[in-house]
Specification:
Layout (H helix, E strand, L loop, with lengths): L1 E10 L2 E11 L4 E5 L6 H9 L6 E6 L2 E2 L5 H6 L2 E4 L11 H6 L14 H6 L1 H5 L10 H14 L4 E5 L7 H16 L4 E5 L3 H7 L2 E6 L2 E7 L5 H5 L5
Length: about 230
């Protein structure tokens, strides 16, 4: 389980997160919702180790990882798919997948067949450059690259941004399949409410750097959540 406990995060004098708490459990999808600029990406960057926190702690499987570097967190099974994908455009699809090897022991450095079961289009494009893929295909590649590391916590920052509806459905199916296996916690930031609602086991809504609503998806009141999504 991931436990984020009362974390504060600053960019210079500007406070981005204020006493934020969050949980994500194995086998569940936890969705973080909110408008642009309320701290959702800052929260994910803090968990992945890309931005230091100034207060609170981040616990993963009962270990305080707050001071660990990103590569150390990756070695403990935390994989981060950032907003914008950040694949390597001049590397082939296969070479992009191989960049995930850095986080895992040498004996595990191969691309699992399951990844091509989840994303069949990638098997057809292994020699194609990443930059030649469509936005939706690049998103699939970014998720697949994270899965190469065999994570137990998969962090996804707006995986539906700028991609076509058919691939959104494919990504939704993959996320649900991964969660249903029961050996992975999934933390998802999303602005597309219907996508989050259909996937979430639990949710947290952020506003101005704070979690203002949280709970199980079964108890989510759509109208209350949407108040924090509209401009």
């Amino acid at each position: 389980m991931l436990n984020v406990e009362n974390i504060d995060l600053y960019y210079g004098a500007s406070q981005a997160l204020k006493s934020v708490g969050l949980q994500a459990e194995l086998g569940n999808v936890t969705c973080v919702l909110g408008r642009n600029g309320v701290g959702k990406t800052s929260l994910l960057r803090a968990i992945a180790g890309h931005q230091p926190i100034q207060a609170g702690q981040i616990l993963w499987e009962d270990e305080d990882i707050s001071a660990l570097a990103p590569f150390e967190r990756a070695g403990r099974g935390i994989a981060y798919v950032p907003q914008g994908r950040e694949i390597f455009p001049l590397l082939s699809v296969y070479e992009n997948l191989q960049t995930g090897y850095a986080a895992i022991p040498r004996a595990l450095r191969h691309v699992q067949d399951e990844i091509f079961d989840l994303f069949p289009v990638l098997k057809e494009m292994l020699s194609r450059r990443g930059g030649d893929l469509s936005g939706g295909q690049q998103q699939q590649l970014a998720i697949a690259r994270a899965l190469v590391t065999r994570p137990r916590l998969l962090i996804l920052d707006e995986p539906t941004e700028g991609i076509q509806p058919s691939i959104i459905k494919d990504i939704e199916r993959v996320i649900r399949l991964l969660a249903d296996r029961g050996d992975m916690a999934i933390l998802l930031v999303e602005q597309y409410f219907e996508f989050a609602r259909d996937l979430a086991d639990s949710y947290a809504v952020m506003d101005r750097g704070e979690v203002v609503m949280a709970g199980l998806a079964d108890g989510m009141v759509e109208a209350d959540v949407r108040r924090y999504l509209t401009v």
